[in-house]
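Researcher: Here's the sequence for the chain we discussed earlier.
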Amino acid sequence: MINSSYYQWGPLLYHTKLDKVILKDLEDTAKKSNEYFSHGLNKLKNEPNFSKVDIKKFKLKLQPYFDNFCEAYNFRCSKDDNFSKILELQNIWVNYQTNNEWRPPHFHSNCEASFVIYLQIPEGLKNFNDVDVEYQPGAVVFDYNRKDESRNYFKAINKHIVFPKKGDMFIFPYDLNHYTVPFYNKKTRVSISGNLIVKERESND
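Model: Thanks. This is the structure I predict for it:
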């Protein structure tokens, strides 16, 4: 008998479904959000920021999901000491992606983790059967340290391609590269994104 073990590798891409009540609250808040927001990657015509008051409100509502991400990190990735800090919401903005718009490959900065929540998904995004799944209209790609795969016999799982549904929430480390593929539909896909910073957990003493 051969004794063996293996090590977890790569960033933690966390997925969950958001509570319907919180999802509806986010949808309503997104509709009234109109503060200007720009980060230098804007390929979308409409991308407003949440107000400071709304960000403060959703700090409380979304905190259980951020805590659960940290628990998942402890289970999957932690080495010697458990991750004893907390992730705190820093900002939220709305992404309105419509016909032929896209977000180029990028990662976030000035934070430790980021998230995206999908509020509305248009039906009938056009599929091209002769195009690789990574480039299918409407795809969202999370990509980590990809290199030439032509000679990679022992392929690593270094990307995940998702076609999000309403209520999907993804949380991931700030440096996980990601991008969206344009689609050809006059309806709009609505999501919110945000950044998280690490804070010391308050003592109960």
